[in-house]
Amino acid sequence: MSAPAATPPSTPTSPAAPARTPTAPSAPAPATRLSLTAAAPGGRLNLVRGGPAQEFTVTVRNGNAQAYRHLLIAFQMEPLTGEPGDLPGPASPYVLERRDPATGTWRGVELRMATDAKPAHLYEGGSPLARDAVRTERYRLRATATGPSGSSPLMVYALDTDAAEGAPPDAGRPGYSSLPHTTRRIL
Hints:
The protein is an all-beta fold. It has one helix spanning 169-172; strands at residues 35-39, 45-48, 54-61, 68-77, 94-99, 106-108, 111-113, 127-129, 134-143, 150-151, 154-160, 175-179, 181-184. A five-stranded antiparallel β-sheet has the order 1-3-9-5-6, with no helix packed on it. Strands 4, 7, 8, 11 and 12 form a five-stranded mixed β-sheet that branches. Strands 2-13-10 form a three-stranded mixed β-sheet, with no helix packed on it. The termini are far apart.
């Protein structure tokens, strides 16, 4: 017996497919830069000399423009002038700490007390931050028992410690935020 003759596969009949309209290539996303926010309960730090520390968070959102190899979060506050009745305090009348997420322990962080800005190239350290990455860190600030009282914002900087000396200021300091702060003494 002979094999049946092969029949060509049938092509389904369907209505004509609509013609495709060529689309323009999509434009690349606009370049975005790093942003930094500092947040505390109530939107500010209210400290009492010798009282408990107050926690706050710092969130860094990197844009799509560049990755950072060494991004350092740095803190600065202008010295308080004090009020009548304040007791002289230590050279550093505040204790600033960062919570280590790996161990859950609090570790000391430098709080620079000065009226001038320290150039980014004079700082060392920092950790990587990839493009489009977000990192939130917990901090706490406590006022020592003695020292001046008054108000001065806590300034928070994201510093690119790889920035060359003489680079434009925004290259070395791509992010900035501040928290209103008041320290009072127990009356």
